[in-house]
Amino acid sequence: MDDVADWLDIPHRAMHAYATATVLLTEEQPDCHLSWVTLAGVGRTATDHGRVNGGTITEDGTMSEPIDTVEVRDFAGDLVSVPGAAGPLQLSPDVWERFKASPTEGTPDIQNIDDAALTAGRAMCAGGRDLSDGDGWLDGVSVLQDEPLFLHRVLATANVYGTVGENRSEPNTAALQAVMFAVDKIGLPYVWGGNGEEAGHDGFDCSGLTTAAYASAGITLMRTAHTQYHSVPLVPADEELQLGDLVFFGDPATKIHHVGIYIGNRQMIDAPTFGQAVQVHNYRKPGDNYAGAGRPTAA
């Protein structure tokens, strides 16, 4: 697991906490099917695994400095933090009081990542919930926080972590950087011709997002979905998609009109259209005009 933690920039002490909570809850509630990737997705989204504001996790699992409520605002500027949330997983007072637990015999401490991870897992598994089911997973994570921004980022992060963990081989660093850039832009609005905040725009259009994501990894893409399709190495139709592949929609002969970035488990991140935010969802649906995939890292 240490190799996977290194590839994904997860502190070893945090990975240990997520894995330990998963093992304990697998024994306690096997039908819940809790995975470490969900806990890690929560941990990164909540406090970057305890590193928010320059903090670290100490050897005994506590924070170098206590983490109070981390202020989170959506891209409309509205405050979406959970009032009174604390610790490395930003657990609410209600969740903590109902489900607090420790893998040791000591008193549970919300500032201890071992205790916080086990408590979060118990909360998500409560009531016989099965996290291997899509609706069950969404309901479980919603117990911790039900803001769409939080849910989409946890879902995307868990997908990325799961893809890398399942492959058990080091991911392409440029592809991983591009994908995590896109994860961090979830919630930004769709803006026609938008290239993101770094370019002085409020949001992205579809190809603006993919262009900026790969630019953050040092790879230059052409600007439109159509030109990206015709300029990156295409993935053979019978080949499995990889993390960071671009997925295209439209007619290659006339107009590729949309592009997203693949994050594993049949999911993509994209800037869909007017009135919608950057989000994560299935990359295929019945009746779509999927045109194939491209792999910028193969160029």
Automatic annotation (TrEMBL):
Q: Per its record, what are the GO molecular function terms?
A: cysteine-type peptidase activity
Q: Which GO terms describe its biological process?
A: proteolysis
**Residues annotated as domain NlpC/P60:** 172-299
By sequence similarity, the record places it as follows: Belongs to the peptidase C40 family.
Record keyword DNA repair present:
no
What is the designated name of this protein? Hydrolase Nlp/P60
Keywords attached to this Swiss-Prot or TrEMBL record, sorted alphabetically, are: Hydrolase, Protease, Thiol protease
Presence of keyword Hydrolase? yes
Tell me which Pfam families the record gives. Answer: NLPC_P60
InterPro entries cross-referenced by the UniProt entry: Lysozyme-like_dom_sf, NLP_P60_dom, Papain-like_cys_pep_sf, PG_Endopeptidase_C40
PANTHER family tied to this protein: NLP_P60 DOMAIN-CONTAINING PROTEIN-RELATED (PTHR47359:SF3), PEPTIDOGLYCAN DL-ENDOPEPTIDASE CWLO (PTHR47359)
